[in-house]
Fold each of these.
Amino acid sequence: MKVLAISGSPRPQGNTYHLLNEALKVLEQQGMKTEYISLHDKQILPCRACMQCAKDKNRCAQEDDFQPIFTAMGQADGLIVGSPVYFGSATPNLMALLDRAGYVGRMGDNPFYRKVGTPIVVARRAGVNFTYSQLQFWFVIMGMFVPGSTYWPIAYGLKPGDVAQDAEGLKTVSNLAENMAWLMKKLG
């Protein structure tokens, strides 16, 4: 079984990177294969609502970095997306990816249906619950199973690496990853 983690942070090794890698480390210990993709250097344009994906099943008409990431998302058995909070919301590049993946998936074969997935969110101070909910809506509408943890999978930090000081946030992410592995094994 394989889990793909996607970071929506513009920082290649910011706090989102650290949290996602904490989750991937636990998943690897649970016997999962893992892959990490950062959107920091990718061009993901917003959905144009052209509806070409309704004709070209499982394919978006726009030419950017979306299609290979969508393919990797569909091939994974589990999916984690991570985002820092930007003005009370997920980053625009992550939302562009999820919006397009949602359209292409639902207009095609929905490669996400009945798979396991979860968001992980980090903020300097506030907006984590709204951003977590915003991202969780995507998993639910795609028909995925979202595991729980001992708290919402959120952490706090401003400068890259600050989340290492958030012991409760790291523990919550570790517990989330353990629950994700358990659920994937039960469903598999």
Note: The CA atoms of residues 117 and 155 lie 18 Å apart.
Amino acid sequence: MPRAATTSDAFNAVAEPRRREILNFLALQERPVGDIVDSLNLEQPSVSKHLRVLRQTGLVNVRRDGRRMLYRTNAEAIRPLYEWTSTFERFWRHQLSRIKKRAEAKEDDGPESDPIYKGE
């Protein structure tokens, strides 16, 4: 089965780790390409390529400020990613609660109930 184009949707676009890095970097404020290149230690052509994909999928917005192009994360376009991953967040919260309950139950039993402690 052929792989979907990276520009087909947000999920395909963020499948590439460097694009996720760029989105994280742009999350708090808009930045020019040069800042992205310098801060993430990536080559300028590579950053431009990734920004083009992120723009085409709507994950980043761009505005011109004189000669500079400033990029920022489009939070609304990221919403489907957030909603999908929040399903798994609930799963992990549930799993962590179960682990915590088990650990607390072992603490209540004391070390004497642990087979390793008894030498078994």
Note: The first strand starts at residue 31 and ends at 32.
Amino acid sequence: MEGESPDEPTVIVDAESDEGVGLDTAALDEVAEAVRRVIAVDGGRAGVVELRFVGVDEIRELNEAHLGGTGPTDVVSFPIDDDPDDPLASLGGPPLLGSIVICPEISDRQAAGHVGDVRGERLLLGIHGALHVLGHDHAEPGERAVMQAREAEHLAVWGVEHPGDPS
């Protein structure tokens, strides 16, 4: 990808899709590459990110159990801050940086009214999740502006226009 240096940190994205979520390998690989790029460019350190695509029931459970949300959502992210019990780090490997979980059924449903197409929506959610893994947030207006600017820059690499602030 354009703008990357050859001495970037190694980022491994462990991507998988639950059976029945309707995500083909090419789509999974493209979102995984977008996540890898965000972590390498913005994070600047080696690490592993888990990327999963799940159904509505699982994303609802994750949202309610871990984030205090109600009902299903499109993406949830779980950053991990230097966990001393990280089995990868204890084996001398790159640390686990966090997990990103995307629900294609929800993202695909909202795509037309948000980014405009399914591909762009999935890329946005992967990038959004990766930025959360790196510690970005959007609870406050200033944070939201910074996060959206980073999202827009990363989406531009993929030829996707950022949808702007939904509020």
Note: Helices lie at 25-43, 56-67, 87-90, 104-110, 118-133, 141-157.
Amino acid sequence: MDPGPVGTEDAVEIGFMDRLKMEKEMLGLYLSGHPLDHFQEMLATLPCNSATLTQEHDGQTLTMAGIVLGSRKMMTRSNREMLLGNLEDLRGSISLMMFTSDRDGPEKQAAFQDDCVVKVTGRVKVRDDEFTMIVDDISLLDFTYRARRLMIDADNLDDTVLNDIRRALLAHHGPMPVCFNLGDATVLAHRKYWVTDNELCRTRVADIAGSGHVWVG
């Protein structure tokens, strides 16, 4: 019996990450985006990335984020299981090494797999200009994540007020993104205007912009 033409009700929607993975497997590159695009604001709040690592980071414990690639298992000479791979961010990559333990929850090893978008904390080891992170903790990044932002309704604010706001933002510089609402548009401010996430900063900006013009979103 002819089931008839295939309609839109028969179509299966491919998830964002699945689509990117298919593009990478078939074409060797991402076309419709990058797995880290969703997390750029969060990445900007981290102290370093693969491109900013230096010899001075040797022995330091840092937190980075990226995509796990080339993951594999091996056994050490002492018969201890170890996971190896690379963490690729938007600037480059760093090697990862993690010793497994019976005390680890299953989610930790599950995050150390190819194409997982993760946040990693560990001790950096530098040898012959090669960087390796000895992983202490690794977790999947949630695609529902959105960074806290300081939102400022800039409609009807004159240049004098806006300049006072800019000076206040500079005085409270930190990792929290700042956005200006201008009509129907939301504009992300340059990183130099990002601020510390505290009540003192919010109160100062609200005093300048006016009641109801400043909130955290």
Note: Residues 150-216 form one domain.
